């Protein structure tokens, strides 16, 4: 994993355990997501929200927000919603 993605993922894994959210949040490694200029990049599904310039601290914050149902749009770089806006919908926020 490049650009610190390994430490981001590890911090997020620890936060998932801390929040006891293993049954609700799955963290998966991917191949290149094609957004090098936005590294580290995370995508949240099924919402289709993409986050840029993530670090370990922000990754943990994202996990806390996901586990409590809070809004997560601060570092949103792209939104894709296959169920609500069609397969190619993209909106930069």
Automatic annotation (TrEMBL):
Extract the coiled-coil ranges from the record.
none
Record Gene3D superfamilies: Glutaredoxin
Region: Disordered; residue ranges are: 1-24, 74-93
Q: Kindly give the InterPro entries that the UniProt entry links to this protein.
A: Thioredoxin-like_sf (IPR036249)
**SUPFAM superfamilies attached to this UniProt entry:** Thioredoxin-like
Name the chain's protein. Answer: (2Fe-2S) ferredoxin
């Amino acid at each position: 994993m490049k650009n610190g993605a390994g430490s981001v993922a590890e911090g997020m894994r620890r936060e998932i355990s801390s929040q006891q959210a293993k049954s609700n949040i799955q963290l998966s490694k991917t191949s290149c997501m094609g957004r090098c200029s936005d590294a580290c990049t995370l995508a949240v599904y099924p919402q289709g929200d993409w986050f840029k310039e993530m670090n370990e601290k922000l990754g943990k914050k994202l996990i806390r927000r996901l586990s409590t149902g809070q809004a997560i749009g601060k570092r949103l770089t792209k939104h894709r919603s296959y169920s609500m806006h069609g397969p190619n919908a993209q909106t930069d926020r």
